[in-house]
Amino acid sequence: xxxxxxxxxxxxxxxxxxxxxxxxxxxxxxxxxxxxxxxxxxxxxxxxxxxxxxxxxxxxxxxxxxxxxxxxxxxxxxxxxxxxxxxxxxxxxxxxxxxxxxxxxxxxxxxxxxxxxxxxxxxxxxxxxxxxxxxxxxxxxxxxxxxxxxxxxxxxxxxxxxxxxxxxxxxxxxxxxxxxxxxxxxxxxxxxxxxxxxxxxxxxxxxxxxxxxxxxxxxxxxxxxxxxxxxxxxxxxxxxxxxxx
Length: 245
Ligand SMILES: [Zn+2]
Known about the structure:
Strand order of the largest sheet: 2-1-4-3
Structural class: mainly alpha
Bound molecules: zinc ion
CATH class of the largest domain: Mainly Alpha
Oligomer: single chain
Strand content: 5-15%
Number of helices: 5
Helix content: over 70%
């Protein structure tokens, strides 16, 4: 393939743009802002779980409190009725003894229930304090997530803009190059090499190999419009006054 030296040099611009495009893709995949946003999301989720767990405990305890209060009321009502009966007329001595006995049992029962209620109320208070703390932490975590997401989105938008710039530049360059040359360049790149590189002081700019004397001799004797390639990486070697030939 014969390509005039000026066009060959343009291939170096294409390789530079492609290198930048690769760096953008790599940067997008390893963006610290994306990592920070992911970590913030984990923190938010953990905070949300702590709040949910606290809310479940609080509602379980509230139900328990209502149940105990109903039980205390029921015992108190029963005692009231017994005392009314005792105070009324028409109660036999045997019934009076039974009622007295039941009132004592009810009083003990009420004491037990009230102790239990007190204990549950204390638990509820401490769960409430924990829940307030968890809710405050969740609010902080949500704020941090919003900020981290904004930073990530801004960084992504910068990369998108840079990528668009480089893609436009690439279009301009490839429009100037022969299709056959681009297709050779693409094939070499597809193998993971530079595609095209400057031969600089006798070394390939793609793989950094120092060419030996024989190889340099061949390059020296090749016509300027000849496409020459690195024997190591296969990249198209572009010769300029820096090449040291
Ligand atoms: Zn090379």
